Every structure is written in structure tokens, then in C-alpha cells.
Amino acid sequence: MAATAFWLLLAALVLISAALYNGFPLVTSDSGTYLNSATHLTVPDDRPITYGLWVLLTGAHKTLWLVVFAQGLLLAGLLWRCTAVFAPRLRQPASRLALVAGMAWLTGVSWYCSQLMPDIFTAIGLLALALVLLGRPARLEQGLLLLLLLVAGCMHSSNLLTFTLTVAGVGVVGWLQGLFRRQVLHRPAWLRALAVVLASWLALPALHAGMGGQFEISRASSAFLMARLSESGVLEQYLQQACGPENQYQLCAFRDQLPNDAITFMWDANSPLNKTGGWNANREEYTTIIRQIATSPRYYPLLISETIQATLRQLTHIGHGDGLTAFRENTNPYWKVNEYAPYELKEYMSSLQNRSQLDFTSLNERTYGGHLLALLVLGGLLFGAWRAHLEATSVLLVVVFGLGIFSNALVTGALANVLDRLQGRVAWLLPWAAFLLVAQHGPALWQRLRSALTGAA
């Protein structure tokens, strides 16, 4: 047990190496909101309070280093367990650590694990889901994994839909391929995972209500959806037809001045949203417009077209550095770091991020090259002559991760923004699957290849 804890500690340090290199945990413009909810235990209008509770629990209102270290330790435990289940050939702890370190170097997962953001919990939830469905865990381990899946689902509102689509997709694949009937995929485990994912849709609003908020996922959801409709051009088309003497929305005054992108619509001080009082003031109007668009078939072709292209675009946005700019004096992260952990403010200000000295050029080159190589490796293994030598669980692992990555791109691209940060947080799971398959099956496949070449010679 002590030896395992030692190796997990090393793996956790590898997974937060970006924070260690930076000199402080990384922040984005949203980090201040989460730190504020941790300090004051208030439910944000536009974010779940769940990550704020995580910060409070792990940081103990003393240090933000423990927050990212806890994230690293949690992720390390899941990756370690994945190695034991899907690459049991790697029995030596040093080999498992090398696998994690190689994946971290190639993909840059550490840059997400090291952030004071809930983004890493999307991947954590998908890892827990894969272990529940394919790992055949004992009862206690399964209970802990399901609890982790529930918590990860409540960390970010997009996770609710991403996990639901992933579990549903696995069920469809299992039914079409007869995997339930052949006991390759256990129906009870899938049903438990489905029940937990569906329960998270109630658990999050219940948590908000218990913390003094309303029984709802987010008060700003209508504003985010309206911003996305504005970016896609659907809102402009709707207003051109709907605005008139008998139907005057506040947005009608801005129908020829709608921003080009969702971020400007949401956050710019001169956007129609903020000029008319913000999301709370516009909630009723936006909800009405969204409902009318959603129930009008005339907009369906454009909505479908926008959803497809946004999903495909999001799948390619896997770079690092998105949002990791300097946040010095007079910024929300600065104020909230000072409020939560004032003795760490000097570290925060002297970090590479806040001195604008972070460069992601070489990392992004590795990332895109690594993902392309992973696609080639997985394609060769799954669709080549070696497919018959793979275990069913190895194939299903790629299916679960693939569905999770696609679902994340669909949800975030179609309903929020096409951003590197939103897809890069889960895209690294694809190379991780390739690492596991090569570690488990690579030596045997290499021997077969050598034998075939020797025979041919």
C-alpha cells in the first residue's frame, strides 16, 4: 500500500507539472467566479457551485496548491487503474509511471489538470465511466466510481449532457452489436451508470437549492443559448421576421448590430445583452425567443447545419494556451486569489503566466502530431488485420472515449463556443487509449510482424 501511494504521488506530480513549471496553479478568466463561490458559498448565476465546494474542501481556505494537487492525485488514481485493467501486461510501477509521463508530455494534459477550473473533471468522469462499464470493479470500487461520475457530472453544466449522450451511445452500440447478449458489456453496470448520469440532472439543481440558490442548473443558460444563436445567424434571421409593431422585443433595437461571436454577446459591455440589463433582466424574453425558434421547423435546416459544422470544428480545436493569459491587478482572478489565499498572492503575481512568459508553440506541435499518430495507430489496430487479436474490452474502451470526445464537441460546439479549452480538456483521452493498447498488445503484434517478415524472407 505504501509503495502504491509513493508511485501515485509521483504520477500526481507529473500531472501537475505545468503548475510547478508555471510557479502557481493556472487560472482563466472564469477562475475568479469559482474562487468566489468557494469563499462566500454563493451559487453563481452562470456556473455550478460544485467546483467552488471542491476548492473549499481540498484547499481548506489555506492554499490553492492543494486544489490542483488533489486533482492530480485523483486523475493519477484513475489512470493507474486504467493501466491495471486495460494494460495488465505493465505490472511494474515504473512502467506505469513512464506510460503516464509519456502521455502527459505528448498531450499536455497537465495544463488542464493544473488549472483552477473544473475542465479536468470532464475527462475524469469519462475515465470513471469506462472503468464502471468495462473494468468489472468490485462493489466498493464501483460505488466510488459511480459517486465520482455523479460529482464530475455536477462540476459543469455541459458535463450533464455530455455524459448522458455518451452513456446512451454506449447503450445503442451495445444493443446493435449484441454486446449485452454476449455479456461483453454488462447490462446492470450500464444501467447503474445511466441511473447515476440521469440523477445528476436532479442532484445539481438540488445542490443549488440547498446552498441558497434556485432549483435550477444555471440562471444564465438562456443567455448562453441566445449568444450561440446570435453567432450562428439564427437569431438575426428570427428577429428580421418577428420584430414588428405588435411584437417588440428589446433585442429588436439591436437586430442589425448583433455581435459576430458568442463571447462578445455574453461579455462585452456594449453588447445587446449588457446594454439591456444582463441575463437576469432578459431571461424571460430570451426564453420565449429560444422556445419559438426551437418549435419552428423553418429554422431546423440552419440549426442542423450549424450544429454539424460547429461539432466538426470543435473536434479539431485541441491546442493548449487558450485563456491562459496574464491576470494581474484589477482582474477578477487577482481579487479572488487575494481573498482566498492572500499569502500566495506574491507567488501568483510572479508566475510565468502573469509575466506573460508561457509559450505553447512546441507543445501544440506535439499535441497535433500526437493526436494524428494516435488516430493512425488506433485505425491500424481496430480496422487492420490485427483487429482479431484485440480483446473486446480494448475495442470498447476506444468506443467509450470516442463517444465521450464526440459528445463533448457536439455539446460545447453547438450550445456554447468553439474553443481549444473546451475540447482539449478531453481530446487527450484518444492518445491515452492508444498508449494503453500499444502497451498491452504491441509486443505480441511486433512478434507476429517479425515472424511474418522472417517467413517471407
Automatic annotation (TrEMBL):
The entry's keywords: Membrane, Transmembrane, Transmembrane helix
Keyword Ubl conjugation attached: no
Transmembrane domains' residue ranges: 63-82, 94-114, 120-137, 144-177, 189-209, 372-389, 395-419, 426-446
Protein name, UniProt field: Glycosyltransferase RgtA/B/C/D-like domain-containing protein
